[in-house]
Amino acid sequence: MRTDSRLSRVLHILLHLARQPDHPMTSDQIAAMLNTNAAVIRRTMAGLRKSGYVSSEKGHGGGWSIACDFSTITLLDIYHAVGSPQLFAIGFEQHEPNCVVEQTVNHSLDDTLQQAKNLILERFKTISLANLNDDFIQRYCAAIQ
Questions:
Q1: pLDDT along the chain (145 residues), means of 10
Q2: Which structural domain range is residue 68 located in?
Q3: How far does the signal peptide extend, from start to end residue (predicted)?
Q4: Fewer C-beta within 10 Å: the chain N or C terminus?
């Protein structure tokens, strides 16, 4: 099963946008950076714009810009803005809902996966975009030394 990289790609974009607050990036520029199509970028960024995290301007000099305070937005906020993608590729079968073995397996898997999902989402609440930006700056400074 293919992984869903929307969350990591959007976070990547946001950190790049934060590097140049006075120079919006076009969908074409972002698409080239991420090796994808500009239409995919526009579709992905639409949820962020709707949530007020980014803005976009058309025409010459236009593009995508940060429209929020990084310290108030968490990974959970961004996760929801990109459509709350599936966190896990594993799941369970429901071919024989009356089968007690299947019920047992599904209950165990469902309970375990739900607990894991809750842990991840709770952790997402604690990480702000400012935290990511600070981590990037530290890593960048260490890399250029």
A1: 84 95 94 94 94 92 93 97 90 81 89 94 98 95 92
A2: 6-144
A3: none
A4: C
